[in-house]
From TrEMBL:
GO terms for cellular component: mitochondrion. This is 7866_t:CDS:1. Gene3D superfamilies: 1.20.1050.10, Glutaredoxin. Belongs to the GST superfamily. Zeta family. Its cofactor is glutathione. It comes from Diversispora eburnea.
Length: 224
C-alpha cells in the first residue's frame, strides 16, 4: 500500500556502486528513461546495517527503490514492478516461450550464481578461500549459460532484443573479470556483454560511473 511518507518528486534508489543487484535496477531505470535520484549505501562500511536504513530494508541489503509511495526491495521484484507500471521499452518479451527463456537465464544468474558470490558470502569465507570459491561457481554456471546461449542468442541473450537476461548478465561478467575468472571458454557471454556495454543505458549504470565510485577507480579506468 502506498504511503504518503514515501512520495518523492522522483524515485529514490538506494544503491552501492558495485552491487550487482543495484546495477540491474539502475540499468532498467535508465533503459526505460525514468529519472531517479541515487542515495549511496556503502556495503563495505556496513551502512546497510544502520537503523534508519534497515527500517527501509529489513534484510539490510541493496537495492531499495522508493517509488509511487512504495518502498520496494529485491532487484527482480523491483524490475517486475517497473515493467508492469512503466511498460514502455519492455525488458520481458511478450511471447510466452521467449519470456520463459529469458527468465531461465535470469534465474541462472540471479539465483544460482550471484547469491553464492556476493559480499556477505565472501566475507564469511575469508580471504583464503574467496578467490577459489568465486572462480569455481562462476565458471560452473557460466558453462551452462554458454550452452543455453548457443541455442537462443543472437545480438543479445535471447534474439535481437535487450531483455532482463542481458541486464543480469553484464554485472556478472564484470564480477567474473574482477575475480580473474577465465572467460575464454565463454565467447558468447563475453561478446554479448561487450555489445551491451556500448548502449547508453548500460554505460550510465556501470559501477565506475556512479557517484559513490572511489575516484581512484574512476581514474584507473579513465572515467571522467
Amino acid at each position: 500500500m502506498s504511503n504518503p511518507q514515501y512520495h518523492h518528486e522522483k524515485p529514490v534508489l538506494y544503491s552501492y556502486f558495485r552491487s550487482s543487484c543495484a546495477w540491474r535496477v539502475r540499468t532498467v531505470l535508465n533503459w526505460k528513461g525514468i529519472d531517479y535520484e541515487i542515495k549511496p549505501v556503502n556495503l563495505v562500511k556496513e551502512e546497510q546495517k544502520a537503523p534508519e536504513y534497515s527500517k527501509l530494508n529489513p534484510l539490510k541489503e541493496v537495492p531499495t527503490l522508493i517509488i509511487d509511495g512504495l518502498v520496494l526491495t529485491q532487484s527482480l521484484a523491483i524490475i517486475e514492478y517497473l515493467e508492469e507500471t512503466r511498460p514502455e521499452k519492455p525488458v520481458l518479451p511478450k511471447e510466452p516461450g521467449k519470456r520463459a527463456l529469458v527468465r531461465s537465464l535470469v534465474l541462472a544468474i540471479a539465483s544460482d550464481t550471484q547469491p553464492v558470490t556476493n559480499l556477505r558470502i565472501l566475507n564469511y569465507l575469508g580471504d583464503d578461500r574467496k578467490e577459489e570459491w568465486t572462480k569455481y561457481w562462476m565458471s560452473y554456471i557460466f558453462e551452462g549459460i554458454e550452452k543455453q546461449l548457443k541455442e537462443v542468442a543472437d545480438d543479445y541473450c535471447v534474439g535481437n532484443e535487450v531483455t532482463l537476461a542481458d541486464i543480469c548478465l553484464v554485472p556478472q561478467v564484470f564480477n567474473a573479470n574482477r575475480f580473474k575468472v577465465d572467460l575464454t571458454p565463454f565467447p558468447i557471454i563475453q561478446r554479448i556483454s561487450d555489445k551491451l556495454l556500448e548502449l547508453e543505458a548500460f554505460k550510465k549504470a556501470h559501477p565506475f560511473r556512479q557517484i559513490d565510485c572511489p575516484s581512484e577507480l574512476k581514474s584507473k579506468n579513465n572515467i571522467t
